[in-house]
Write a structure and sequence with these properties.
Helices cover 29% and strands 25% of the residues. It has 133 residues and is α+β, with helices and mostly antiparallel strands. A 5-stranded antiparallel beta sheet has the order 3-1-2-5-4, with helices on both faces. A hairpin with a 2-residue loop joins strand 1 and strand 2. It is globular, with a radius of gyration of 15 Å. The two termini are 27 Å apart.
């Protein structure tokens, strides 16, 4: 089975915004945050960094990798979260946005993101990293 994506946007675009992938280095790991915002990516990342600073007392390394305006942001974010569910990572200390981190290779996150935004379905079985050869 495949996840179905509704690529039709409403005339009001009430669910339009930015779907993003941001790399963070937290708890000694490179993690991918998958999220959405209706503001600019700069505003959202600044908000996350300030929240992380208040918790960790330092700013983590952070680099936006993909951020594109699209329709159906809630559905697309949910599809990516479900797809990578087996690799969800909860930081040692919680802060605003900390529930959307995944311990996955960045290339895999980018590939799924691009596939989804191209209107292609993601495998319903979810993400399974292939073992190293």
């Amino acid at each position: 089975m495949k996840f179905i994506v509704n690529n039709k946007s409403s005339s009001l675009d009430e669910d339009a915004g930015i779907l993003y992938l941001v790399v963070f280095h937290i708890d000694g790991k490179d993690l991918v945050k998958i999220g959405i915002t209706t503001r600019t990516i700069e505003e959202r990342v600044a908000e996350i960094l300030v929240s992380a600073f208040k918790t960790y007392r330092e700013f983590p390394y952070c680099r936006p990798k993909r951020f594109r305006r699209t329709s159906n942001i809630f559905e697309k974010e949910a599809l990516l979260h479900t797809y990578f569910k087996s690799k969800q990572y909860t930081p040692v200390k919680s802060f605003s946005g900390s529930s959307e981190f995944f311990d996955i290779p960045l290339d895999d996150a980018v590939a799924a993101y691009e596939q989804l935004l191209a209107g292609e379905a993601l495998d319903e079985g979810g993400y399974e990293q292939l073992p190293d050869s």
